[in-house]
Design goal:
The complex is a heterotrimer. In chain A, about 35% of the residues lie in helices and about 20% in strands. By secondary structure, chain A is of the alpha/beta class. The longest helix of chain A is centred in the middle third of the chain and has 20 residues. Chain A is globular. The chains are: A alpha/beta, B mainly alpha, C alpha/beta.
């Protein structure tokens, strides 16, 4: 990667203070032997600083594709960006080449995954993996220091100022060999303490298979935060955990957001989990955003029939209190999307217009957007 | 809604045989073809393999009559001629047309390769499948016996057997089979263990199925593809080993044409008449590669999910 | 727990299932002490006729193993299972196979519980052919049609393969398969956990309808308390291989008598941003290793109310209130003090 390109990445226009990430009209397709699978259609989203946004949806809605697009992990064939842009620090990261994206990962954008066990390398101990993360960061700092560029830390909580570069290099004892060194820095221990692991000295020597699910997920979170990224994409981080462990991890994530000030894009299929953790909620269906609102508005006054249906599935009472209404039909096949509004075949409020025209995502109340002709009769017909 | 299960009646038995093998009707064949066609590698492999089989069959069925020349006719006047329009691959030291000899060897190599690999697959399937399914001491015993066989260097074992039985094609097959079956047994056992742990096998037990049924209907169809793919890779191997045996003099005996033997006989002419050893050696190479490429395609062709994509 | 066997379709008595961790030849030769994974360690319960018993627990609780053991898919290490009054633990071979007609199972994962190489009609018919040798084509046809209709699958799906169906549809196929032999008891092992939320309710409603129509009994295993609430009349809570609480669903959820039940209920997130899960702790730490079981009460290392006796003596499952049992030394006193304060904080209901 040439020096010149590195500078461009660093000296991006930082004057826009409000959003960490801006997605504009993103279209993602997967090419198959028969027809293209349209995974994302015209998805637009702004992620403000220090905000937790929950992306909620069922299988096939595109939430994971969205997460992977941002961090550049889409397998590119067969996936294809059909249009749109993702602006991070005002640069379209979809247009970056691989080395530039690698620079971005960890520092600007981090990701944690659903299965903590398989996301950690089984042949290295926790401490070694943490060291690796620290090492990557230090190497980047050294490179940048050489070009007199500043790491953008303005998005982070000012009271949590990372110690100076020199201090860290000198006092941390991080080996330049990185992974293979068994001496664990203070910082690695601190990272574990920060995620509420009560005896970090013992855990730091353990290998991933010796950890429980909840513990492993905490280690993942610790690793993701080492580089103090501006945004963390969490792809169903609690779905594989027991409910009691999940409660602990959600509590931890809320605390960390307070402390460090990272934005989190929390992808989940569970609306209730979203209610626990998010500031804003985005509901996706068949590759599109169908509703977006603050967490209070979404749960107290949701607008889209799909959201309504999902919320209902939590409201069942005891067995003798009767059955609750289920949303009929199945999640649509992304190769053969319904005409007009994609939800209309399953929607109990559907009327004539719904099968013909495709509603656009409109702001019908302040901060509350919905794509539905019922709620927004003035919604225009947006081409599919 | 109670549905009664009727008692056994004396009417015609139910037609509950389903098309289990995905190759036998035209729609399925078309899907298989599409899969092979989808990549150059598998296409080339498929073509080579099919051509080889067709040629071998044709030569065998016609008792060598369709060959351009007589593979055994010695003709002193045409010794060691370079490739020409008349003799496309030249002639050997006894004046015989090399192309004819190579083609005549096809059914022989085919017979050996398919017999050895075929018996290895069947033995491996049965023995390995049994070991994996039954477990316990039976499994331990079977696997240890397999290990013993595997511990022998294959070629040495084959040589020992052929040497004691006397060189002939049949004896070569008998010698090679014991060398080959252990790997398939191992493979089959491993696959059986992994299939056994799948929930649909548990579901079958829960449904009240007898073990015999489970093995036949669930385990074997699910481990067969892996064994078959491995087998295609092996066809080339068997031909190679057979060639080595013939090269040493313990496989096919002259004047019977066999690719390894032809290469051996031609070796001394490498400088003066290079076409003599190179042509048969190259044939071995092409056929071996062809089958392994075919194996790649076969793996996909036998996977119901991939077939779904191509239907 | 041992009431009369009348009216119970299934009854388990002191059921134990231990797995051998060290049984290889090397271990035996070296004379290593045997290590057991005590997946199910002394469980007794019953399922009444035409009723659903919910079984709730997290990973490592033993609920899945219990489901399998009740059906004799795993042989119990100790204890017995009675089906309709008969001790099935003593049965082997043919006799055991014949019982399977009456008790079936639906698994959690609709991807792996169907043989990917079989067509739908073969999958659904399989249990039938285990018991009856031959039927006429017409009979088969009508049974298949009825089965598909009862689970809401389209008729043209008969010749298709599992991968052509969605998760919810595959689960319907699994249910159709379980129903085709007219069982009286079905173990449902997390049947909706792998499905999307909008489909879950459909399948749950389907299961309830089928139960009403056919007067079936279910053992409904789940980690999701809300689902069990919707499906069951009575429920049992499992932890570390034992039942820690069992009773009517309303009683257990509204007045829990065991700290673990309380922790479980209060950890369930509810879709209301104003009712956040209170603090880090109704419970500390994580599920313990199944091999080295804590002394005394298995839950004591994580229990906020643990006292000396909890470390030394294992509590028995006792009937604290009418038909409401709990295995906790402080079951009756604990409901007095801590309950009111904690229920306020728990959004799980």
């Amino acid at each position: 990667m040439s020096d010149e390109k590195l500078e461009i990445l660093e000296q991006g226009d930082l004057s826009d203070e409000k959003s960490v990430l801006r997605i504009r009209n993103l279209v993602v397709k997967y090419k198959t032997f028969q027809r293209d699978v349209i995974a994302l259609t015209n998805v637009s989203l702004d992620v403000p600083r220090s905000t937790i946004i929950a992306i909620v949806g069922e299988s096939g809605c595109g939430k994971s594709t969205l997460g992977y697009s941002i961090i550049g992990l889409l397998p590119r064939p067969p996936a294809e960006i059909g249009g749109g842009e993702i602006l991070f620090q005002n640069k379209d990261i979809l247009k970056l080449d691989e080395p530039q994206i690698v620079e971005l990962r960890g520092t600007g954008i981090s990701m944690i995954f659903q299965e903590p066990m398989t996301s950690l390398d089984p042949v290295y101990s926790v401490g070694q993996q943490l060291n690796e993360a620290i090492d990557v960061r230090e190497k980047r700092k050294k490179r940048r220091a050489g070009f007199h560029a500043q790491v953008d830390t303005s998005s982070l909580n000012p009271s949590y100022a990372p110690p100076g570069l020199g201090q860290r290099m000198a006092g941390s004892g991080v080996s330049s060999i990185g992974r293979r060194n068994k001496k664990y820095s203070e910082e690695a221990i601190d990272a574990l303490k920060r995620v509420h692991i009560s005896d970090p000295e013992r855990v730091i020597d353990k290998y991933p298979h010796e950890l429980s699910g909840g513990m492993a997920q905490r280690v993942m979170i610790a690793m993701a935060l080492i580089e103090k990224p501006a945004i963390v994409i969490a792809d169903e981080p609690t779905s594989a955990l027991d409910v009691t462990t999940q409660a602990q991890v959600l509590f931890l994530m809320r605390e960390l957001r307070e402390e460090i000030g990272t934005s989190i894009l929390f992808i989940t299929h569970d609306l209730a989990v979203a209610a626990q953790i998010a500031d804003q909620v985005v509901v996706m269906y068949a590759g599109e955003i169908v509703e977006q609102a603050s967490v209070e508005d979404m749960f107290h006054s949701s607008l889209h029939p799909y959201t309504e249906g999902l919320l209902k599935s939590f409201s069942h009472g005891y067995k003798d209190e009767g059955k609750i209404e289920a949303i009929s039909g199945d999640v649509p096949n992304l190769k053969y999307l319904p005409s007009g509004c994609r939800f209309h075949p399953r929607c109990k409020y559907a009327f004539a217009r719904c099968s013909v025209e495709h509603p656009s995502l409109d702001e019908v109340l302040p901060g509350h957007k919905v794509a539905c002709f019922l709620r927004s009769p003035s919604s225009s017909n947006q081409s599919n | 809604m109670q549905v009664e299960i009727p008692e056994k009646k004396n009417e015609e038995p139910s037609t509950k045989r389903t098309r289990r093998v995905p190759f036998l009707d035209t729609q399925e064949l078309r899907i298989s073809w599409r899969i092979f066609r989808s990549s150059y590698i598998t296409l080339i492999g498929a073509i080579i393999s099919i051509v080889f089989i067709i040629l071998a069959l044709a030569v065998w069925l016609s008792s060598n009559k369709i060959l351009p020349f007589d593979p055994y006719a010695i003709s002193p006047s045409t010794i060691l001629q370079a490739p020409s329009l008349h003799h496309l691959l030249g002639t050997d030291d006894l004046g015989r047309d090399i192309l004819t000899r190579i083609l005549a060897a096809a059914p022989i190599d085919a017979e050996v390769a398919f017999s050895v690999v075929g018996s290895a697959v069947i033995l491996g399937l049965l023995i390995g499948g049994l070991a994996g399914f039954v477990g316990g001491y039976v499994e331990e015993v079977i696997m240890r016996v397999t290990d013993i066989f595997l511990a022998f260097p294959g070629l040495v074992l084959a040589l020992a057997i052929v040497a004691s039985l006397g060189p002939s094609i049949t004896n070569t097959i008998l010698a090679l089979a014991p060398v080959w079956w252990p790997s398939y047994t191992r493979l089959a056992r491993g696959e059986t263990l992994s299939i056994k742990s799948q929930q649909f096998v548990e579901a079958s037990t829960a449904a009240g199925q007898k073990n015999r049924h489970i093995i036949l209907r669930h385990i074997i169809p699910n481990i067969l593809p892996t064994l078959l793919v491995y087998a295609t890779l092996d066809i080339g191997n068997v031909i190679l080993v057979f060639s080595v045996l013939s090269f040493i003099g313990l496989g096919a005996q002259p004047p019977i044409p066999e690719w390894g033997l032809l290469s051996a006989q031609g070796e001394q002419y490498l400088r003066s008449a290079p076409w003599y050893p190179i042509a048969p050696a190259l044939t071995i190479l092409i056929v071996a590669i062809g089958f392994s490429l075919f194996g790649d395609g076969l793996r996909d062709a036998l996977d119901p999910k991939v077939r779904g994509l191509f239907s | 727990m041992i009431e009369s066997l009348d009216g119970h379709i299934v009854e388990a008595r002191d059921l134990k299932k231990y797995f051998d961790v060290r049984s290889g030849i090397t271990d035996r030769v070296m004379g290593r002490e045997k290590l057991w994974v005590k997946a199910v360690d002394g469980v007794s319960f019953y399922v009444g006729k035409n009723e659903t018993l919910g079984l709730v627990g997290e990973s490592g609780s033993g609920k899945t193993t219990l489901g399998r053991t009740v059906l004799m898919l795993q042989k119990p290490t100790e204890g017995s299972v009675y089906f309709d009054g008969k001790d099935i633990t003593k049965l082997k071979g043919e006799q055991l196979r014949k019982i399977r007609k009456d008790m079936q199972i639906v698994f959690q994962n609709p991807m792996s519980s169907l043989d990917p190489r079989q067509r739908l009609k073969d999958i659904v018919l399989e249990p039938l052919f285990a018991f009856k040798e031959s039927l006429t084509v017409a009979e088969i046809r009508s049974l298949l049609e009825a089965a598909l209709k009862s689970v809401g699958l389209p008729e043209d799906s008969l010749m298709r393969f599992p991968h052509e169906f969605s998760g919810g549809q595959r689960q319907r196929i699994a249910i159709a398969r379980a129903l085709i032999v007219n069982p009286r008891f079905i173990v449902l092992d997390e049947p909706t956990s792998a499905l999307d939320s909008s489909i879950q309710t459909q399948i749950l409603n389907l299961l309830r309808r089928i139960q009403e129509e056919r007067k079936l009994s279910y053992l409904f295993i789940s980690h999701n308390v809300n689902v069990v609430k919707y499906m069951a009349e009575r429920m049992a809570v499992m932890y570390g291989g034992k039942i820690v609480e069992i009773g009517r669903v309303r009683d257990v959820l509204e007045t829990p008598l065991h700290p673990y039940t309380l922790a479980l209920i209060s950890s369930v997130p509810v879709p209301d941003p104003d009712r956040k899960i209170a603090s880090e702790g109704q419970v500390k730490g994580e599920v313990p290793s199944a091999v080295r079981i804590p002394s005394g009460c298995r839950f004591h290392p994580r229990c906020p109310y643990a006292e000396e006796i909890c470390k030394t003596t294992e509590p028995e499952l006792l009937e604290i209130k009418s038909s409401h049992w709990s295995a906790c030394h402080f079951a009756d006193s604990f409901q007095g003090k801590a309950l009111t304060k904690i229920i306020e904080q728990s959004p799980g209901l």
